[in-house]
Design brief:
Elements lengths: L1 H19 L1 E2 L2 H8 L9 E3 L5 E3 L11 E3 L19 E3 L19 E3 L22 E3 L17 H8 L5 E2 L2 E2 L5 H23 L28 H37 L9
Length: about 270
Amino acid sequence: MEGHSEAAAKEEEEEEEEEEGVRITPQLLKATTGEFALESILLLRLRGRGIAHLGCLGDCTNLEWLDLSGNAIAQLGPLAALRSLAVLNLSRNRVSSLEPLASCRSLQSLNLAGNLVSSLRALRCLAGLRRLESLRLRDPLARLDNPLCAVAAYRDALADMLPGLKAIDGERVAGCGSELYQLCRDLDSSLGHGAGGGAGGGAGADPPHAAQPWVEAGFWEPRPPRRSSIMEEAYRQFREVLQECRELGRRADDTIAQAERALSTRHDPNSFVF
């Protein structure tokens, strides 16, 4: 009972805080974007406006890019209607529950740095977002994070829960560049273990192990260029066209030379005297 009463009190406090903040209205959206119809808004930037309640934002059904960073938003309910939303920036807000985002099927990039996400359970609702590739919970440059970021290896757990992610906190975990990132992590880990073993010293220290290669043999060797049959055929046709051009040029030179000789042998009519 005490837990329920505390939760209810917390919700009431959040509602009071929301009422004190700015509410998104059609007038605010039209004044910001210059659009007369909310359905025509595709890009919307409302950074640092003191917004606490999303109001009619769900009426912008064709919205694709949305920046709500630096506000006081805690409830995301209206965002559930934004099926076309691809990029969402919610950094520096008061978000702890992400359930409405489960309906944003087009979402590709989500920034949640500087919020109140405290567990991986709160992120499970994102598992159905097949297009989600980038998720940020921590921004060291802006000194923003979430309570979840204090958990060791939360990124590894997040990558397992959302295997479609290609970048977590701005670092590549899949796709182009991920191999180099993983190599650097392995190198850091190896150096860390080595430093720990050296610091221990004396009896009980682990015996040194032979250094192991970081990559497979031949990894750094240049790979032969791949040439498909289509490319070879294109090269062959290009060479044939080039040869034809040269032949046409030679014929043109011969024709011009013959014309010049013919003109030089004609008598000048002005040279005859009557």
